[in-house]
Amino acid sequence: MTSESDRSRRDVLILGAATALVGAGLAGPAAAELKTVVYNNSGGASADAARAAWGGLMRDRASSNLLVTAPASVARLKAMIQARNVEWDVAELVSQEHKQAIRESMLQKLDLSVIDLSHTPDDCKDEYSVVYALYSTAMAYSSKIAAAKRPGSWAEFWDVAKFPGRRALRNHPVDNLEFALLADGVPKDKIYPIDFDRAFASLDRIKKHIAVWWRDGSQPAQMLIDGEVDFTSGWHGRFFALAQKGETGFGVQWNQAMLKRSWVGVPQGAKNPREAMQLISFMIDPTASAKYAEGIGYICCDARANNHLPENVRPWVMSNPAIAELTVSANEQWWLDNGELAQRKWNDWIVT
User: 10 Å Cβ neighbour count for 199?
Assistant: First the structure.
């Protein structure tokens, strides 16, 4: 369901894009010759990185302007398809959402005459979608906390006596159920299927110590910078984007970070399917993906992209072997099958 704020945000994005074209002198006949390809994205630093990495390629090689909208929403995508008024040409589908979109026939098959998947591992592609971004939900800490007092695992995050400080977690079952089981001593290769009773019993032990249950991806890093909390979970790209701007108020603990995947596909009824396929081809191009990583720290599954990364970005990407071996891979199929039940249980638990 789309809220008024979502619609307002979309309108602002569209108006901003139009203003930018005018300011660049492209609002006349030259701009009229270009199509506008709409890419729906998670927003924030990811949207900025997308424009920087792929906007020029779309203009120069696909005769199209790239308009990035946010937030990503599989529910809204479904509603647009049902209404036969699809506004997006390319849709980001986070983790298990791509499986839902395929199951409910929301996506067109990828055009392999346009998109080269030969260097993409099998677990990062299917007939309808492809992973364009590997990312993580990781633990982060305030730089003001002494190194010896920074949790190095979720068991230590749960240990409020040994590692005192104000804590924050996302107000959502995704990742938190896994973190709770890791904190309770479950090995990372035994997390799934998730034992709800054990996970919520573990969450019961930490609940009263959570100062903030965050909802927006921009909150965690800002809370650390502002001194509102000392430890939090968060999407690592948001920490990366601020760190690249010189922010030193926080650090990231990679151990037991949840490794996640963002997929992209072309919706049924998209207005510019050919250009949409071209955009996806750029999104998984090694050089262009590395350019995207410079803005957000997320990268595609093609190992060749690592060769194009600046040195300051390499320590942040999930394809870095030193990081990858520490992470826990999210089980997208489990969340597809059990996500609604997990959400209901979470909603009941968080208010008790």
Answer: 26
pLDDT at 25: 41
Judge whether 28 lies within some domain.
yes
CB 226 within 8 A of CB 109: no
Assess if residue 147 is contained within a domain: yes
Residue-range definition of the domain harbouring residue 121: 4-130+265-298
Buried/exposed code over 283-319 (b: 16+ C-beta within 10 A; e: otherwise):
bbbbebbbbbbbbbbbbbbbeebbebbeeebbebbbb
In this prediction, residues 290-310 reach a mean pLDDT of 97
Name the band, by pLDDT with cuts 50, 70 and 90, for residue 17. Answer: very low
**Residue 311 counted as domain residue:** no
Long-range (24+ apart) CB contacts under 8 A made by 202-205 are: 202/158, 203/176, 203/177, 203/349, 205/158
CA distances to 148, 221, 237 from 143, rounded to whole Å, are 12, 11, 18
What the block records as the tokens of 346 is: 């979470």
Q: Which CATH number characterizes residue 225's domain?
A: 3.40.190.10
Please check whether residues 13 and 95 belong to one and the same domain: yes
Cα angle: 115, vertex 119, 121; to 5 degrees: 105
Residues 217-239, mean pLDDT to the nearest whole number? 96
The pLDDT value recorded for residue 33 is 85
Assigned domain for 313 exists: no
Query: Tokens 């983790």 identify what position?
Result: 95
C-alpha–C-alpha distance, residues 299 and 304, integer Å: 11
In terms of domains, do 9 and 48 share one? Answer: yes
Domain count, the chain: 2
Q: Which helix (H) or strand (E) holds 167?
A: strand 167-170
Q: Are 96 and 336 in contact (CB under 8 A)?
A: yes
Chain centre to alpha carbon of residue 152:
23
Mean local confidence (pLDDT), 75-82: 98
User: In terms of domains, do 122 and 270 share one?
Assistant: yes
Q: Are residues 125 and 274 in the same domain?
A: yes
Half-sphere exposure of 260 (CA within 13 A, CB side): 23
Residue with tokens 């591992």: 121
